[in-house]
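debug: dumping io for the single-chain case to check the tokenizer round-trip. Nothing else runs in this session.
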Amino acid sequence: MTGKGGTGKTTVAAALALALAAEGRRTLLAEVEGRQGIAQLFETEALPYEERKIAVAPGGGEVHALAIDAEQALLDYLDMFYKLGRAGRALKKLGAIDFATTVAPGLRDVLLTGKVCEAVRRKDRAGWRSYDAVVLDAPPTGRITRFLNVNDEVAGLARFGPIHNQAQAVMRVMKSPETAVHLVTLLEEMPVQETMDGVEELRAAGLPTGAVIINMVRPVVMDGAAVASARDGQRTAIAKALSQAGLGGARRGGLAERLVDPLLAQAHEHAERVALERAQREELGSLGLPAYELELMGDGVDLGGLYRLAENLRKQGLGVA
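debug: decoded output
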């Protein structure tokens, strides 16, 4: 899940994880930006570097969460491929791990994506996958392609050995038909343009695009035709209606009369917004991707709201097995 900052990608990722976990399934929700956004949404304590159950979905499914830390992921990597164990922990105490992940940002992305893909591939003793779905709250759209495609670059640089094999394994997951990069946007010019650019970059890199999820959609109260009708000689009728609603007399200069112009101005602004949003929808429609919409929750998204968003996604068909 990616999206321009401020579009609510973490909230949508959490809602999708809940939707995918319905009816007894298990979902892992992972984050890589160190913001502890998942813990805040699910109203729980900060997540450690381990997979932890944080919610039960309708039908008894489970949502597990993981906040991936690049330093810890590097220690896992060193232990897995080079059997360093305690030696790796000693490097951490010396500051070498932090130095490596800071100086080489590409290495950081390799470690983060590698940890996610390990969870995707993991199986139990009976050969079943540990999770039915893994949802990644990924970096913003502006750097999503570089983030997901970094292992392709590493595989090209390291021609053999464990690093090369690890990078190739990660890219097999990233470019698998089972993977989809969903993009969260708002019906505003800048988020829509960033979504358009992001899809173009993902396609150019051979990464699988999924759906466009339009978040925080506001209801349409009245359209341009209704505003035009109100403006075309109906000021008197509007003042009369206001008066009948108990907002003062309809006489000239009365309260109802004074309310007409401000109300018409608001109606005009609303109609302009509706027209702009319609144009943005058409722009997104040109991508040829499935589109889903989530309503704006005026009071913010609490845990109950998160479940409502998940149910909304399921009703639209996203998150249904």
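debug: round-trip ok. The chain has a mean pLDDT of 85.
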